[in-house]
Amino acid sequence: MHSRVIFVVSGVGLLLAIVSAYLFSQQPKALPPTFEPAANPYGNGIYANGIIESDQGQGANVNIYPEVTGPVTHILLAEGQAVHKGDAILTIDDSVQRATSEQLKSQAEAALALLNELRAQPRAETLAVAAAQVDNAEATLRNARDQLAKQQQSYDLDPKSVSRDALDNARNAEHIAETNLEVVHRQFELTRAGAWTYDIQNQERQYTALSKAYAAAAALLAKYTIRAPTDGVVLAIATAEGSYVSPQGAYNTYTQGFDPLVVMGTPQGRLAVRAYIDEILVHQLGDPRDMHARMFVRGTNVSLPLSFARMQPYISPKIELSDQRQERVDLRVLPIIFRFDNPPGLKLYPGLLVDVYIAAK
Questions:
Q1: CATH tag, 64-93+224-264
Q2: Looking at CB atoms within 10 Å, which of 2, 11, 121, 188 has the fewest?
Q3: Residue 282: how many other CB atoms lie within 10 Å
Q4: Mapping DSSP to helix (H, G, I), strand (E, B) and coil, where does residue 236 land?
Q5: ∠298-315-335 over CA atoms, to 5°?
Q6: Which residue positions in the chain have pLDDT lower than 50?
Q7: Where do the structural domains in the chain lie, given as residue ranges?
């Protein structure tokens, strides 16, 4: 009886093992792909990695770095917003530079006031005082001469009527009055002549120097407001209010490197794609004036025709398209820039990686 039970259990276990092996050996049917992988549309085509960027006449996107340092105080525009040349994008704390600029402005204004004062000389009131001093000196001289004449006449009639000492004092008083009149006459002429030419020239140079210092300070103050250098669209702002920025850019806590403070592009109606051609395939490229290429958007079945824009005739080391950092590899590539019209209903943005096929000659 015991042996029969063991035999039955063993048979059931063997049967289960056979069924399990059969079930696990069955391969599930593969799901259909959500999109077709990019296929070469040309009989002899060259494949290249591409990255979408703004359609610029030269270069790629516009990277804006501040020329000053400090914390960001206000962000005036939003990412994706269209801007015109000169529009303010954000401001950096300018309190110290503003105070410096105002101080230099006040110094320049004070120097100008002093210069105008020198140019306006002689002042009418000062000239009137100098003229009055001349009249007073003339009156003093007349009085001294009258006193001397009286003393001399009395002495001539009776030498004992006037002492020799009194007569000498009268003569000295006349001489002093004559000398004083000559001094005030020259002082009057000096006052009437106005400021010295060399004093005016010196003050003019001081005013010019302070004006230029103020202009330089004002120009530096203007750099604390980051403005759009051209018409376009704000693609990215790599900072927030209160963050510290420098001419190196804004610190990115994720990449632990510095990024441009603001990235701008052209309006999104037309975009460009930068394709990198392996150096060993460059000789297969056809005439740029008759170059045909198509772009395939990854993750979709969308492909778009490309029109040749320009070529950078310089083969450089391959770059990592995801973060634009150079790789230390032997592979070198030739950048070719194509243009395409952004079709309605399709979301394409600068920075998107795409596949590009170029018809070979």
A1: 2.40.50.100
A2: 2
A3: 14
A4: strand
A5: 30
A6: 321-327
A7: 45-55+266-359, 64-93+224-264, 122-194
